[in-house]
Amino acid sequence: MTTPLYAAIIGLVFVVLSVRTLLLRRRLGIAIGTGEDPELTRAMRVHSNFSEYVPLALILFYFLEVETDADLWIHVLCVSLIVGRLLHAYGVSQVDENYRFRLAGMILTLGSIISASTRLIVSYVS
Asked: Within 10 Å of residue 92's Cβ, how many Cβ atoms?
């Protein structure tokens, strides 16, 4: 099984994003909400966005691994997801944001989800 390795790596990235947000909250003295601080707002969105996309992607990758013989494709999808989430996190974290990082991150993230979904549907139908 390949997906658990990548899930573990992604789990560590999630912890880094969580700790980053917690430390920022502590430094700013904001326990709840954003306090309208742009840096905290962005850190929270990076963390939340990661939480919104990654679980579905990992479930799809796991199903793809179990249902097909797409071993190399699993690696490609998982690496794309990780790179995409890191690019997105970097881009959104910048108060003076360069949207190219966010765009590239979303393309890689959504591309991996679309690819896994499509492959699973084709596998089911055929």
From this structure: 22
Amino acid at site 10 = I
Residue ranges covered by each domain of the chain: 3-125
The whole-model pTM stands at 0.93
Q: How confident is the model at residue 27 (pLDDT cuts 50, 70, 90)?
A: very high
Q: Which residues contact 19 (CB under 8 A, 6 or more apart)?
A: none
Tokens of 71: 């071993």
Q: Where are the beta strands (DSSP E) in 1-126?
A: none
Q: Are 74 and 64 in contact (CB under 8 A)?
A: yes
Four-CA torsion 11, 79, 100, 59, nearest 10 degrees: -60
- CATH for 3-125 is 1.20.120.550
Phi and psi at residue 54, to the nearest 5°: -65, -45
Residue 7, Cβ neighbours under 10 Å: how many? Answer: 18
